[in-house]
Amino acid sequence: MSKTLAVCIMVLFIAIGVIAIISMIISKIRCTEEVEAVVDEIIVSNDSDSGTAYYPVFLYWYEGAEYRRKSGFSSLFLRFREGDRVRLFIDPNKPESFYCPKETIHKVLFFLLFSGSGAAIMALFL
Fold it and tell me: DSSP label at 49?
């Protein structure tokens, strides 16, 4: 593998991680309304490569409307149980958009590890 290609791949891994973290920050800025949600369901996804992943489905109400939204972030271990009460922050202009503070640290760590491991692997090729 050429050094130029390795550097490009390393930069790509870092850029993806940085973009994902910036996206989370923007979401946190936009999502200012606190609501109480209930974990309505846990969707289990089985992938032969990565194993089992768990996606919580949150049920919450805002201005008289009910919202049921699946988290966009999965976990390899079960962090939530059906019936758990969870604090969410939603975008008042787009109530179906939310962030869950309980997931935030896991997302940040995932993207930091993603970027860091990609950069470290590519650095080995240099």
Answer: T
